[in-house]
Design goal:
Pfam families: Mo-co_dimer, Oxidored_molyb. Keywords: Metal-binding, Molybdenum, Oxidoreductase, Signal. Its cofactor is Mo-molybdopterin. It is a single chain. The chain is mostly beta strands. The chain has a domain of about 180 residues: Sulfite Oxidase, Chain A, domain 2 (Alpha-Beta Complex). Helices cover about 10% and strands about 30% of the residues. Strand 24 and strand 25 form a beta hairpin. The protein is globular, with a radius of gyration of 24 Å. Bound molecules: the ligand Nc1nc2c(c(=O)[nH]1)N[C@H]1C(S)=C(S)[C@@H](COP(=O)(O)O)O[C@H]1N2 and molybdenum atom (MO).
């Protein structure tokens, strides 16, 4: 097995070596310091215990404590010409569990994040409906509500990795994803309110959805999906949507590519054909080896990534117990199993799912293992309830070539070195 890596030289973290040298010896096999060694944090009075802390009103709406200031969205400057039509990445290497806090959930917009007041919000349903309707925000709140957790993955997630290992961190290779608990109204409820009698046979009908921002980000969605599980969401993780995620109302299209999750949703038109807008022709289609393009590749196939250890989350402790963890998801249903390999895919161990997989939502996996300083080629491989198995990069290239940007769901490899640092590599 050979290791292939392209792109930038990895940044060396001098502090890491220092940390390892000073603590490795002190750490007992079980991963805890021995009580016999005097520790000033135990034996001496500490400043935080000798005064008072902040009063309850000091932060009416709180931010993370300053020591977590590193757990932030990050941009890759060379990726886009400006930040108005750009993307940043969720710090998945530093999060655990499955819910992405809104404040660090990646953003993607085509003409900036707009500020739209609830009072100024209108949603129009027009086209082949019995009665064209316009809803205010308050109108939407009066329909029966649904509450569900789903991942949103931009189809371009991992898109920079087609030609070789590029970006050194799970945040950058896999961070165009977030997972939130949405509250809203089922789209079906609103379409039925407008009435679909006039649309006739619904099998070949579509809806065209657009946002209130200058880009509008218009997309066509088949009626079958529109009537299935699509949501008109106004809350995420319990609170109002953040501006950057479409406040006050966005579309939630479970399991389908993020581009269809129209933010600042302003109009839904029932049509008898797809509109073939910019976002579904020149963008969000997949160019194959022979130059032709696949269109309507809406579903996000099963995928996973080890979030730690990973390039931004090196092993900083000594030898002994090691928690390997990551995320898995599938747009076709629930994750049923995740395997982890330490040797670049030669042998596999089945990881523990923190909770049973939920359809079209992130699943957290753990492999509780022992590390004795050996180098690892860490990989994870997801399986979903349809029996689909996440492919290797080689398998994906065989079918898709290297001309694609979108829908790269291949197995990722991190080369973990003896000093605990990790690097984005490819195995062949
Ligand atoms: N109105 C509008 N909706 C939009 C976009 C946009 O630019 N404008 N970007 C789309 C794309 S490409 C993605 S991946 C998701 C990103 O959602 P997020 O910013 O909440 O992460 O929103 C989609 N919906
Ligand atoms: Mo996207």
């Amino acid at each position: 097995m050979t290791v292939r890596f392209k792109g930038k030289a990895p940044s060396r973290r001098a502090f890491l070596k220092g940390t390892l040298a000073s603590t490795a010896g002190a750490i007992a096999g079980a991963g805890a310091a021995s009580a016999a060694t005097p520790d000033p944090l135990i034996t001496e009075k500490q400043s935080w215990a000798m005064g008072t802390g902040d009063g309850v009103d000091a932060t009416p709406y709180g931010l993370p404590i300053q020591y977590e200031g590193d757990v932030i969205r990050r941009n890759v400057e060379w990726l886009t010409a400006d930040t108005i039509s750009s993307i940043n990445f969720s710090p998945i290497h530093a999060l655990d569990g499955t819910i992405t806090p809104q404040g660090c959930a990646f953003e993607r917009h085509h003409s900036g994040a707009i500020e739209l007041k609830k009072e100024d919000y209108r949603l129009m349903i027009n086209g082949l409906v019995d009665q064209e309707l316009i809803f205010t925000y308050e109108d939407l709140e009066r329909f029966p509500r649904v509450n569900k957790t789903f991942f949103l993955e931009c189809a371009a997630n991992t898109g920079m990795e087609w030609a070789g290992a590029q970006l050194n961190g799970a945040q950058f290779t896999h961070g165009m994803i977030h997972n939130m608990e949405y509250t809203g109204v089922s789209l079906r409820t609103l379409l039925e309110e407008a009435g679909l009698g006039k649309a006739g046979d619904l099998k070949d009908k579509w809806i065209y959805v657009e946002g209130a921002d200058a880009s509008s980000n218009g997309r066509s969605i088949p009626m079958e999906k529109a009537l299935d599980d699509v949501m008109i969401a106004f809350k995420a993780n319990g609170e109002a949507l953040r501006k950057e995620h479409g406040y006050p109302v966005r579309l939630v299209v479970p399991g389908w590519e993020g581009n269809m999750w129209v933010k600042w949703l302003r109009r839904i038109e029932v049509t008898d054909q797809a509109v073939e807008s910019r976002e579904e022709t020149s963008k969000y289609t997949d160019t194959l080896e022979n130059g032709t393009s696949r269109k309507w590749t809406w579903v996000m196939d099963a995928k996973s990534v080890v979030t730690s250890p990973s390039p931004q989350s090196p092993i900083k402790h000594g030898h002994g117990p090691l928690v390997i963890t990551g995320l898995a998801w599938s747009g076709r249903g629930a994750i049923t199993r995740v395997d982890v390999s330490k040797d670049g895919g030669k042998t596999w161990e089945t990881a523990r799912l923190a909770n049973p997989g939920q359809p079209m939502a992130l699943t957290r996996f753990y492999l509780d293992t022992t590390w004795t300083g050996e180098e690892m080629l860490l990989q994870s491989r997801a399986m979903d309830e349809t029996g689909y198995v996440q492919p290797t990069k080689h398998m994906l290239r065989e079918v898709r070539g290297e001309n694609s940007i979108y829908h790269n769901n291949c197995i990722q490899t991190w080369w973990v070195k003896a000093n605990g640092e990790a690097e984005n590599v490819e195995v062949s």
